[in-house]
Amino acid sequence: MDKLIITGGVRLDGEIRVSGAKNSALPILAATLLSDTPVTVCNLPHLHDITTMFELFGCMGIDLLVDEKMNVEVHASTIKHLRAPYELVKTMRASILVLGPILARHGRAEVSLPGGCAIGSRPVDLHIRGLQQMGADVIVEDGYIKAVVNGRLKGTKISMDTVTVTGTENILMAATLAEGETIIENAAREPEVVDLAECLITMGAKISGHGTGTIRIQGVKKLKGCSYTVLPDRIEAGTYLIATAATQGRIRLKDVQPDIMDAILVKLREAGATIEWGKDWIELNMHGQKPKAVDLKTAPFPAMPTDIQAQFTALNAIAEGTGHVTETIFENRFMHIQEMKRMGADVTIEGNTVIVRGVNKLKAAPVMATDLRASASLVIAGLVADGNTEIERIYHIDRGYECIEEKLRQLGANIQRIAG
Ligand code: UD1
Q1: Is residue 193 within 6 Å of ligand 1 at its C-beta?
Q2: To bridge 210 with a disulfide, which of 197, 254, 307, 409 should be the other Cys (CB 3.0-4.6 Å)?
Q3: For ligand 1, atom 17: residue with the closest CA
Q4: What are phi and psi of 183, to 5 degrees?
Q5: CA-based R_g, the chain, Å
Q6: Across-strand partners of 39?
Q7: Is there a catalytic annotation at residue 199?
Q8: Alpha-carbon distance 258 to 262, whole Å?
Q9: CB–CB of 98/30 below 8 Å?
Q10: What is the pLDDT of residues 39-82, one digit of tens each?
Q11: Which atom of ligand 1 is nearest to the CA of 330?
């Protein structure tokens, strides 16, 4: 298994491009299954999760044309098998996103029930319940969600008990081809849900209210092909900004969308960063100063994303003062804490809050990545630690960060991948 070796102590300084958003690209790829004619998706990030989705499409017999820029043309009408197998779903939970589109388009679908997850139990009951409310018969048998509907799904009012991103996306996609109007209440307002809705609208769907808690969808009989460009990844952008702040450096991000990053930018200013931004760029400068610790609490958009809390915890670990980081979305998202402690971080966990007392320096140690964002936080810890930090199990990082070592090297970091 590959490892990363980071020699800490370098102030990051430079310019990088932000990749397309993984969490937009995955539902948009799933949405292509709703169309009879080819859909082209552009600005896809080069990530393991994206190739897993291609593999899943391959398993279903779907023809794909991928060019050298990772634009992909999906010919969903070539689908032969309406089944997402366990072997792929277990490596990527977001495979559940094909359930709604396949069911709506073909009247039946089988998707392996995603198993446990490092950050909590992560049920999919709300996806299933929403589809049942739209008239589908859904059973869970032999580890698979098996859904069928006689004719078209029926539009209805669906009130989500919890704000769920992929749950909202699954129902939204299914509703585009349903009979009549579907209203999703307590819908997720994440920019990636909005991006999916915009793509569906370009395909001919009738949707309003996306970006608010109530989304209305008027079902249509057919969707058509289009070309759609995925929005920039706000979590990748946030991760590089935090890494730069932690190393007291300076960065310019291009191809980014600052207006969906308020919660993150506000905290970085609180940490002492000077931040300037334009339509598609952000500059952050710490002027060589140590960051100040920040308090934060994760919650659905527009609040602080759960996918960025571990990275802020790494910043707090070497900041001036004490920071409190509270996680309200997932039950077990503190796996990075034990690893950071091995590097000398002064952290305690109280319920769903981590209390981080900033120390002068972290010390390099061998550490293990446990999930995608936890591994990003260990990279940040490695960048500010004395000595060589070895991070194992970096396949987690490759699921969500395109060319992380090239991008960090472009910013001056001393980082190497050792193939294993
Ligand atoms: C998505 C993101 C992930 C992010 C998360 C929260 C993708 C591909 N992944 O994951 O990066 O961390 O949103 O912003 O977009 N829940 C239920 N029942 C359900 C569904 C969810 O109880 O049927 C609960 C979950 O356990 C969790 C909360 O709802 O506590 C939010 O999870 P959800 O928004 O569904 O996360 P994902 O969509 O899986």
Answers
A1: no
A2: 197
A3: 123
A4: -120, 120
A5: 21
A6: 74
A7: no
A8: 7
A9: yes
A10: 999 999 999 999 999 999 999 999 999 998 889 999 999 999 99
A11: 30
Q: Is 123 in the pocket of ligand 1 (CB under 6 A)?
A: yes
* Cα distances (Å, whole numbers) of residue 87 to 31, 55, 143, 350: 22, 11, 12, 36
Give 222's DSSP letter: -
Average pLDDT over residues 127-149: 96
Non-local (6+) Cβ contacts of 235 within 8 A are 21, 22, 23, 305, 307, 308, 373, 400
Give a three-class secondary structure readout of 163-188. Answer: CCHHHHHHHHHHHHCCECEEEEECCC
* pLDDT higher than threshold 80 for residue 333: yes
In whole angstroms, give the CA distance from residue 238 to residue 250.
14
User: For 168-226, how does the pLDDT look when each residue is reduced to its tens digit (9 = 90+)?
Assistant: 999 999 999 999 999 999 999 999 999 999 999 999 999 999 999 999 999 999 999 99
Rounded alpha-carbon distances, angstroms, from residue 272 to 174, 265, 288, 289 = 45, 11, 10, 8
Output the DSSP codes for 70-125: --EEEEGGG----EE-HHHHTT-GGGGGGHHHHHHHHSEEEEEPP--BTTB----H
Q: Indicate the pLDDT class of residue 121, thresholds 50, 70 and 90.
A: low
Query: Residue with structure tokens 């309003």?
Result: 208
For ligand 1, say whether the CB of 30 is within 6 Å of any of its atoms. Answer: no
